[in-house]
Amino acid sequence: MRISITQFVTLDGVSQGPGSAEEDTSDGFERGGWFVPYLDEAFVKTASDWLDLAEGLLLGRRTYEAFARDWPHIPEPDPFTARMNALPKYVVSNTLGSGAWNPATVLGGDPIESVTSLRSRPGGELQIHGSSRLGSALLSAGLVDSLRLAVAPVIIGQGRRLLPHPSTDTGLRLMRHEAMKTGLIVLEYETSGAAPLADYEGSPALP
User: Fold this and answer.
1) CATH superfamily name and code, 2-191
2) What does the alpha-carbon distance between residue 16 and residue 33 come to, in Å, rounded to a whole number?
3) Sign of the dihedral defined by the CA atoms of residues 7, 11, 184, 148, in that order
4) What does pTM read for this prediction?
5) Could you read off the pLDDT of 117-172 as tens digits, one per residue?
């Protein structure tokens, strides 16, 4: 299976609480709802196309519990509700005994070993939504295949970052980019091993 990080982020890298003021107030976060002003029909179509690729959701405990609280109560015809509720959820946690937002499977033990085993199975794409600590750990371990980011034109200055200091560097290959009319920038990357490094030795001569 392939693992993709699919996230909404601010220009300063914050991924916490994009959807509402009350979505995630942990650690004193007070600036939720920063993504909503930039939603339009074109981006909803893009996000829906991304979700079509998901064969399951790969989540940390905190994100799973927040989604389990909210998604069963978001009414249709929201274009995501039925799929989010129906997709298999794989929850990486050693503190969650079982999941109430089903179908759910709790992956206990060492997170890297558990996800490596899951990733080795045949199948489609597992998408990480939220779960910034999980995404960062898996990226450092070389288990992430692609990243899909929607960057909002806003600086929040508070909250959890998407990639809080991963322990290894990672190179990325840009596969798609698009500027939405609202100001959102859509970026799609594939991972490409270690980040390339070089010393600057002057610009090439111009003709």
Assistant:
1) Dihydrofolate Reductase, subunit A (3.40.430.10)
2) 9
3) negative
4) 0.92
5) 999 999 999 999 989 889 999 999 999 999 999 999 999 999 999 987 777 899 99
